[in-house]
Batch of 2 targets.
Target 1
Amino acid sequence: PGGFGAAKNLSSFAFEGADCSVNPDVEKAIREMVSLGKPVGALCISPVILAKILGDVELTIGQDTGTAEAIEKMGATHTMTSHGEVVVDKKYKVVTTPCYMLDATIDQIGDGASNVIDAVLELT
């Protein structure tokens, strides 16, 4: 998933930051994917959900320092990235990219999304 809905509908991150909660069905799905060793791709703001659920996961939301600080407060490691770059956490098989967390064009969003797909396929 990706987009602002992840921060306000799938979780309460938009309102509560690092103290957020995650929709129980979303949390269950992510935990099941991880326990089965299946890769998970997350775009834009949605990596905050993975930070909340998994804790010590490595991920990116780009270069927003406030969000990066919240991610680290949840126990995760944030890596600063730019357009199209992905961060792969091999322990959890999680792949993330910032998309619209950066001032991006639709082509840059497409590149990031494609790179996440490629990295997820490499983890299968």
Target 2
Amino acid sequence: FKLKKEYWNKGIMTECIKKTLEFGFSDRNYNRIEALVDKRNIGCKKTLENNGFKLEGLLREYEFENGIYVDLEMYFILKREYIK
């Protein structure tokens, strides 16, 4: 996800994540939801962690961006962990 800097630290992404999890786990009956995050995006990683996501692993040189390959980290949350 991306959000303009002027909207950072207002709880907007936290609310979006909560609604996404609710829809995914309740309406779609998913067992697992994943997020791929640029390794350098500390704010995004903190937001995911604060919403129950856990780091699963590093995907080295996974995405080609601005002429270079960048590492992404995979975060996940399971339905049973979300329900707790």
